Structures are given as structure tokens and as C-alpha cells.
Amino acid sequence: MSNDKKVSRRDFMKGAATGLCVGAFAGMGLYSYSPWAYSRLPKVQRKLEDFGACRSVRVTNISETSWFNNAHLIGDIHEAGGLLVNQYTLNWAPFANGKGSAKGSYDEAMATIKDLIPHDLEKAWEIQKGLSLHPENPGGYSCLIEVEALDGTITKYLLDTGWSYEWMDASFKREGIDEMLKAHEIEALFISHEHWDHFWGLPVTTKYDPRIPLYVHDGFYKEGLQYIKDCKHTGDLKVIKDPVTRIESGMALLKFDVPIINRVFGETSLAFNVQGKGLVLISGCCHQGILQFADFAYTNLKYDNDRFYGIYGGLHISPFEDWDPKYDDLVISLGKWGFERIGCNHCTGHLTAKKFIEAGYPVVRGTARFRSASKDYLGNGDKIAFGC
């Protein structure tokens, strides 16, 4: 250090966030913390926006296994030209036309299945599997969030809707999501970002409830917006433009403008104020970076005890288990926020979850069922509760 001044918690984390650099495919983890993803976090006055409070939040992991083979996913992206290639041209189902790597076409692919979705997803997926690269690799990310209001009323939401029609339909049925959707018990679907593993399984949701309100970041590309129409969605489409959108008392949607690999832009994440406990953060992939996510919430939101209580979701640290020593800074930095309950999976990477456990963090462990790879994180079918 150039002086003897004491380093604050926020300054320490900003230094960790901006001190990382991007590599090649290791950069698929580092990317979210690099200058390409966001510039140095500015020092600002805390706004402390009051968004109310709730009694508890419960999360059911429907699926965190977005793909089943890292080598196939990385290899396909590399062969197509790298991290900046448009995801709709990769020739992955359901946007494959059979012409090979980097020759995919949204229009050509949809012409093969448009008349089948969402009512005959089995046939649609079989057609696309025959045209796509590594058709058995897609899975998906999706979770059910149940918010208990202060009066005891429970409201249900979906965060993301996965990728593979086949895998996600089975996962929805396993957790009873299909019946909840049919009964209109789920208030809304939030799409964290436009990536294949969080968004492309949309017809599995619209198959059961086409009128469900849908929230998306305003950085969606024309293909993504057209796909919503092609999936026969008939409900309200809420395109989020504001940094903070209150959903209900104690629940807010946070918007991050950040470039993401494969020509995707922007991510939304969720924040909850659990009465008497503090702030809970829930993310799909957290491409904005866990440090920016936490710093934004700290700067902008008012929450009980001014304390970070819990975090859940993909934290995008080592999604391909490609540990880099620089990730250790992120592990250390997360500890500075003092979370009391940590539920991680998906692109957090199970090596990262193991590092959290070794560091003594309060990680809620899972059962490694339904093709999830590790008990060190919350796998498919596992649950976590905050405030119950």
C-alpha cells in the first residue's frame, strides 16, 4: 500500500473486484469481475431506499445443472469463434438448423418447431436434437421462490426457466411446478438474463401458464424478444429499465447493465428484506459479479439491522471448475459481508463451494440428487429458507 490509512470493507472489495483480469476460457469465470464487465466502482452516498419487509423467503432449486459436460460446451463456443459469438448462431437446440458450428439461425431454427411450441415440446425437442451440436448436453437453471409477507400470505415466483425442453419439463414435474403453473399459483417469472441455460426453456413455462407475467432486462436482443412471442406468451411483458423495481413489500428486482459472453447484455437479480434478520440476495448467474451485487445493494437499499443475512444462486466464480488464484480474493471478499446463510450452486462451481466451506462460511449443503455433482452446494431438488 502507498499509505498507512486503514482500508474499509468496501474499498477492500473494490480493489479485489478491479484487480482481476480476463483470460481465455478461464475468463468465462473471471469475465464478470474484469474491466470489460464493469469499471471501477465509484464512491457514492448510500441512498437507503425503503422497499418494505417480509417475514421469510424460501427457495426450491428446480434445476441448477445448466449443462452436463463442460468440455462440450467450451469446445462448441471455441469452435464457433469464442466468447463474443452470438449465442443464437452456436447451433444449439432449440436454435439449430443442422448447418454446423457458427452457422445457426434463429429464423431457420424456429421454422422447424414454431408450430409445435409450447403444446408439443417433446416433438419439438426431438426435431431440434437432430439438428444441433451435442444435443444431450443442455439442462437448465430455474428456482421457485416463496415469499411470506408479514401477514402470513405466501406468494410464489419463478426465477428463470432453464434450457432443455426435455430436462426442464421433467424437473418442473418433479417439483410440482407444472401443477402450480396450471393453477396460476405462481405470480410471475423473472428471467435473470438472456443466456441459453436461463431463458431458452421458456416454452416449458408457457406450456402450463402462457399468461404468467414476465420480467426481463431491457438489454434483451431482438431474437430474445421474438422468442417470447414465438413461445405464445400472452401475459404482461415487463421490460425493466430502472435500477431498483419494488415487486412487493420486502422484495425488489435489481438491474445491472453489464456485457456478458456470447452477445448477451444485462442481468437482473433479486433482493429481500427479511424482518429482524436483514438482506437476502438471490441471483441467476450474477454476471455483474458478487462484489458489485453486494455493493449495489449496500449502497441503494434499506434493510433490517443494516446487515447482510443470506445469499443464494449462481455466483459466477468458477463455473468450469477452473480455479485461478485470483478467485481466492473473491472468497475472502465475500466473507467481509458477514452472510449468515450461503446457498450456492450452478456457475458458482463446486470447487468454490468447497473453498467457502474450508473458509468456515455458513454454507447450506445439499444432497447431490438428480444429477447434481456435489453435496457442497444446493443441488437439484434441494431447498433453503431465510427467516423461517
From TrEMBL:
The keyword Transferase applies. It is an enzyme of class 2 (transferase). Keywords: Iron, Iron-sulfur, Membrane, Metal-binding, Transferase, Transmembrane, Transmembrane helix. One of its GO terms (molecular function) is iron-sulfur cluster binding. The keyword Acetylation does not apply. The chain crosses the membrane at residues 12-33. InterPro entries: Metallo-beta-lactamase_dom, RibonucZ/Hydroxyglut_hydro, TAT_signal, TAT_signal_bac_arc. Its EC number is 2.5.1.105. It comes from the Bacteria. It is found in: Periplasm. GO terms for cellular component: periplasmic space. Heterodimer of a large and a small subunit. This is 7, 8-dihydropterin-6-yl-methyl-4-(Beta-D-ribofuranosyl)aminobenzene 5'-phosphate synthase.
